[in-house]
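Deliverable D5.2: sample structural annotation.
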Amino acid sequence: MADVLPASSPSLNAAAPAPLRILLDGIDRLGRLDGWIGGGCLLMLTLLMLCEVATRFLSNFLPFFPPTISIAWEYSSYLMAASFTFGAAMTLRVGGHIRVVLLLKNVPPPVQRAMEVLAASAGFLFMAFLSSSMAKFAWGAFIRGQVSTSSDTPLWFPQAVVTFGMVLLTLQFLARAIQAALGLPLEDHRMKASPVE
């Protein structure tokens, strides 16, 4: 997990005008929250799968023990989707997404910044569309009262969780576009996990 920055840690957005600095720092905080929620979902997914394995194992020796946890596979898919979407914003902020930088490395810094602005703007527009579509999808499930056939779980809930993760990634792309336009650092390496010794 990423280190929690102390309150006195200087902001990488300090050179931005005050209203933008507040916005960018707020998005950075949401990005950290995003990473922690993603890690929590991954931990719950792991625990659920371990419980499923233990249940199957015990059912071989104890006839009264159920052979499976009925919601395990359904909820594991919800948790997997949440893990992917909730980890994305923080991963973008620390520079962890896979990128092809061959062109960026061979152009002057002003062109690099322009390309970063364009790429972040394209990411923002794509994610804004995707987030909007997912929000409509979740809202439709809520209005229709759709539930899972295997567990009667209201489907709008996991869909809304995934939508929230997408919205956080959308905001991180917006922040990256602003940071690139202002010449601010695009990646916060202080948020990366410390090496394990």
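Annotation notes: Residues 43 and 109 are 41 Å apart (CA to CA). The longest helix spans residues 18-61.
The annotation will be released with the project's public dataset once the embargo ends.
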